[in-house]
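Hey, resending since the last one bounced:
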Amino acid sequence: MKIFHTENGQISITGDEDLLTKIEGENLEEVNIDGIRATADELAKLYEVAGAKKTVEAIGKYKLLKQKYIAAFSK
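The structure tokens again:
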């Protein structure tokens, strides 16, 4: 996983495509990321956990935090 800041202020996160394809079409409504701060460190931790566990919940937490991080830091 790599985080890039583009010239126009957008956040781009790459290198996680294989992981995210494992949960395509899964319902993530039960996945809860309340209380997890949207920081690069937390995102990296969840990415590592998701890669190790390979469960819908673990990958879902990473995916949801990724979306939250991009929304918070993209201009």
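The first strand starts at residue 2 and ends at 5.

Sorry for the duplicate.
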